[in-house]
Recover the amino acids of this structure.
């Protein structure tokens, strides 16, 4: 961590809870702490494979952190580690690959959901649902 910068809140919480976690949950947390910017781009299966654990263990580790699940972890982690200017100023450019476009769109949806209280990802048949 660079001098003068604060450690993201979720990573601090992980370190605080670390000793109370199971061995398998610690493997998940170790991987997240090691490279949080990589984790936000992995599927739950991808993270489980990298940790040598099951998908259920990844989800349990997320819930131990007080999160709803893996998607909530990714959104919270992304909000913690992406600088506000990077998040605000990043645009979709001609020639961008599909992964980058999906990533940007996912962050826009996640930010909208957090701000508005609407959940577009769980109830997309009716255009979202107020939480």
């Amino acid at each position: 961590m660079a001098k003068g910068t604060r450690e993201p809140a979720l990573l601090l919480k992980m370190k605080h809870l670390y000793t109370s976690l199971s061995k398998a949950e610690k493997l998940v947390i170790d991987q997240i702490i090691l490279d949080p910017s990589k984790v936000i781009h992995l599927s739950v299966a991808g993270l489980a494979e990298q940790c040598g654990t099951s998908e259920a263990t990844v989800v349990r580790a997320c819930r131990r952190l007080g999160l709803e699940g893996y998607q909530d972890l990714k959104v919270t982690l992304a909000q913690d580690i992406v600088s506000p200017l990077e998040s605000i100023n990043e645009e979709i450019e001609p020639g961008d690959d599909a992964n980058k476009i999906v990533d940007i769109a996912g962050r826009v949806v996640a930010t909208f959901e957090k701000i508005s209280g609407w959940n577009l990802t769980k109830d997309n048949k009716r255009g979202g649902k107020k939480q």
Notes: Helices lie at 9-17, 23-34, 36-39, 44-51, 55-64, 70-81, 84-89, 98-116. The chain is about 60% helix and 0% strand.
